[in-house]
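Show me a record, fold above all:
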Amino acid sequence: MAEWKPIESAPKDRRILLAYDPGHRINVDIGQYDYSTDLFLGFSLYGCASSHIRNKQPIAWRELPEFEGLRYIK
């Protein structure tokens, strides 16, 4: 799998994996760049107060892994 890259190099045109480091414990979320706030937002942060969002900015990113879809087991 691809290595984590600095958030400064993240693309602004698609969904990506975002890594957060709140107190040396990495959290990962799917997100994208939000032009209205000029920030990268993980989908778990949408609808949060802007002060909360600004305190939880990602430190790194990577592309989403390839996904073939769901498979049901019977």
Notes: The helical segments are 50-54. The longest helix spans residues 50-54. The chain has a mean pLDDT of 80. The longest strand covers residues 27-34.
